Inverse folding.
């Protein structure tokens, strides 16, 4: 019995040490990316190429999802608000939900599964097929040439994608509430304009998306670079990217929200 | 170091020395400049020692073959020469510098003068054939795009794939990918090229073409080529010197003529591809009978 317990405790110890080690390794990797970003910023075409893959190609899924989420918000908002005779406030509700929460969070979750997983898979495969080793042998630093451009492309595209999500979402809410249900057009927009504060709502939303963008892309490039160089290694890393970054997004969202929106204003 | 025709490490087979005058080529070899020097090199992945006391000397303008069964550590040796891994003890000197003592910047400076052809090509899958070959030229020089284009097409012409320059790596056959990788590795006319099994998977025609290309490039540019290969007959035609690795040591070494005529059991087995000999086909294991649980009592 005590032997079993000892083994159990040792197992826990191993895990703790391993995760701590990995966290340190990841942080060091993150610092390296920042230090070696000079090339990406000097040769911005490298980042632009990746912006196309991470940003432009994510537009469709982000827009379509935004539209549906906005439409659902319109329906549910109307359903609830009309009980209090406040159906004209549906515009406010749709806009605030999107700008403060759903825009940043859902867009980041979609971004993690669409672009983050692709980044991980691509870097992991480059490692598995010795492309990164070949690059090192050519005296070109893979972190500067491969990782950093992808990182910055992700960080740059995230806020725009989230903004797109919110805009299309508001339009979806408008479609359902005004066009389909027949809420008054003028009050829909004017109440929204009055209630949404630029500094308090929009800027905070943008801050969230920037934080999520850094988190998701950092997780994605790290998992790719750290993947063991086999088919299973890469597929495992891809899954970990989606799982880890989703958890990180939701956790960070709670933390950020609790600082930003405290029921005052 | 290993100028003698006897094996350098303990327990090795010496090649039979033919009784003739020291030929001119070996005199020239002594006189010419040493580019790569491997000195008492030891390496192990974890517990199992993989390379034990390797010594080699490679001169400019020579093609050197490294032969040995698969898993004998040939790729590992190339990685040690390229500074990708650090030896357990001993050292590798390239152009007078101890590779594993260099800091990263100096190592990268040195690597601009060497290049490596990976076993499976390792082409950049997100770049076209043209951009693959242009990669190093663009990264390390400021040449105008028109000149990059000329250089790239020249290199592709040399491997017979100028017409394939706008294909993506996924559209190439294994042999074509190898040839593109070869064109890429000579893009900046390095001093040292390491080829990891360049002939595997090539048809006989491309094999001869690539073999001759390696020879011609080496002579024309005065560089050093290290060719890891299993293709004994083809490589004996083009190389200047051969090292055989077995069991982590240099089992034998010599010029192609010496190798062909050698009666050392190891070399003979390898050159003629015989099943029986000092090299065993099996990875070390416990006795077959005991692994199959054939106890004397039960059997
Ligand atoms: N990264 C590694 N970690 C642990 N063992 C390895 C690694 N790479 C290769 N090996 C082992 O080292 C031995 C030699 O490998 P390698 O140098 O690739 O042989 P060769 O190229 O001669 O076929 C093999 O037994 C292989 O299993
Ligand atoms: Mg090998």
């Amino acid at each position: 019995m005590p032997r079993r317990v000892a083994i159990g405790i040792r197992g826990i110890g191993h895990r703790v040490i391993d995760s701590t080690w990995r966290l340190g390794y990841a942080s060091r990797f993150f610092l390296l990316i920042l230090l070696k970003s000079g090339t990406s910023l000097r040769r911005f075409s490298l980042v632009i190429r990746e912006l196309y893959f991470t940003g432009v190609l994510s537009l469709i899924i982000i827009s379509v999802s935004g539209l549906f989420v906005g439409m659902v918000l319109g329906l549910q908002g109307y359903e609830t608000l009309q009980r209090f005779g406040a159906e004209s406030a549906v515009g406010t509700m749709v806009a605030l939900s999107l700008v403060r929460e759903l825009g940043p969070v859902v867009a980041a979750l979609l971004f993690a599964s669409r672009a983050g997983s692709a980044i991980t898979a691509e870097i992991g495969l480059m490692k598995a097929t010795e492309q990164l080793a070949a690059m090192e042998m050519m005296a070109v630093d893979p972190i500067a040439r491969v990782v950093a451009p992808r990182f910055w492309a992700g960080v740059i595209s995230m806020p725009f994608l989230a903004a797109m999500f919110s805009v299309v979402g508001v339009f979806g809410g408008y479609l359902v509430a005004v066009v389909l249900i027949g809420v008054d057009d003028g009050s829909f927009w004017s109440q929204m304009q009055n209630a949404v504060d630029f500094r308090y709502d929009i800027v905070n939303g943008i801050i969230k998306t920037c934080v999520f963008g850094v988190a998701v892309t950092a997780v994605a490039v790290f998992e790719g670079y750290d993947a063991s160089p086999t088919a299973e290694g890469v597929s495992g890393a891809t899954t970990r990217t989606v799982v880890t970054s989703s958890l990180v997004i939701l956790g960070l969202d709670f933390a950020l929200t609790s600082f930003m929106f405290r029921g005052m204003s | 170091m290993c100028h003698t025709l006897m094996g350098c490490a303990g327990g090795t087979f010496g090649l039979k020395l033919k009784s003739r005058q020291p030929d001119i080529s070996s005199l020239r070899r002594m006189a010419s400049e040493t580019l790569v020097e491997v000195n008492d090199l030891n390496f192990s992945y974890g517990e199992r020692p993989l390379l034990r006391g390797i010594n080699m000397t490679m001169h400019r303008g020579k093609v050197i073959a490294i032969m040995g069964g698969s898993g004998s550590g040939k790729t590992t040796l190339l990685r040690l020469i390229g500074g990708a891994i650090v030896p357990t003890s001993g050292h590798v000197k390239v152009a007078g510098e101890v590779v594993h003592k260099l800091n990263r910047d100096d190592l990268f400076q040195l690597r601009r003068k060497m290049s490596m052809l990976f076993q499976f090509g390792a082409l950049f899958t997100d770049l076209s054939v043209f951009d693959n070959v242009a990669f190093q030229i663009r990264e390390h020089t400021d040449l105008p795009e028109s000149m990059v284009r000329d250089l790239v097409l020249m290199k592709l012409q040399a491997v017979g794939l100028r017409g394939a320059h706008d294909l993506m790596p996924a559209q190439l056959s294994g042999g074509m990918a190898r040839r593109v990788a070869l064109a890429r590795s000579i893009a900046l006319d390095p001093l040292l090229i390491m080829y990891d099994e360049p002939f595997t998977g090539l048809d006989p025609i491309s094999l001869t073409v690539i073999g001759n290309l390696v020879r011609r490039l080496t002579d024309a540019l005065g560089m050093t080529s290290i060719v890891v290969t299993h293709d004994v007959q083809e490589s004996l035609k083009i190389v200047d010197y051969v090292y055989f690795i077995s069991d982590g040591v240099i089992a034998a070494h010599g010029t192609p003529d010496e190798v062909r005529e050698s009666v050392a059991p190891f070399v003979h087995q390898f050159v003629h591809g015989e099943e029986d000999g000092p090299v065993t086909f099996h990875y070390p294991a416990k006795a077959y009978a005991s692994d199959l649980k054939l106890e004397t009592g039960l059997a």
In short: Chain A has ten helices and no strands.
